[in-house]
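REVIEWER CHECKLIST
Item 1: Sequence provided? yes
Item 2: Single chain? yes
Item 3: Sequence as submitted:
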Amino acid sequence: MGARGKKIVKIEVPHKEEYESGNKKITEGVTIIKYKDEPSTIVNWKEIIEGDVNSNAEITYIIQYDGKKTTQHFKTKYLDTIDGKRLVHVDGINLSGSNQVSRIKKDVALSEMASGLFSVECIICEALVTVLCSLLADGVAEAVACEEAPALVCIPFLFDPVVYAVCYPVVATICFATLETIVGLGVGTACALGGSYVCSKTGAC
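Item 4: Structure as written out by the authors:
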């Protein structure tokens, strides 16, 4: 169950298309998050990439769901490849529908997705556990951990629009249940057992 009593049962992508406009590569689509006994969330999204994602690029996301529209713009700079993952520096801004601006500036190890759609919630949940454990270890209060978690969880999926676009609503749905499970098991125990174990307890995996 999530903070709003929602349980995700399926994530579908009924529409996705890719095309080019000048030097821009554009991917846009619709993703549907289905809940048990609750109305679905429909996420409309567009990813616009300028440049080479293997070196330096500018990425814009326009994401709409639950009557909210978010526009995000990032600049990425390739730094290194470590253990098969590309390490990039991400400098970006997030503009919410209420005109609130937040900024992210950090080095990120990008996650390469090779999974089916049905495991998207599980993948996001496992990333969320890692982030929550890190935040709690750094002394962040439980009451604000789920406010700080979304950007940290979602940024590594930046180049996979199917995952990135639904990451924020999925984190919003499962974060409090995941946090409660970690605290209930004991932070040290839960974080030692890892995301797979914790997310199996919450039903995300």
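Item 5: Key structural point noted by reviewer: The CA atoms of residues 79 and 88 lie 5 Å apart.
Item 6: Recommendation: ____
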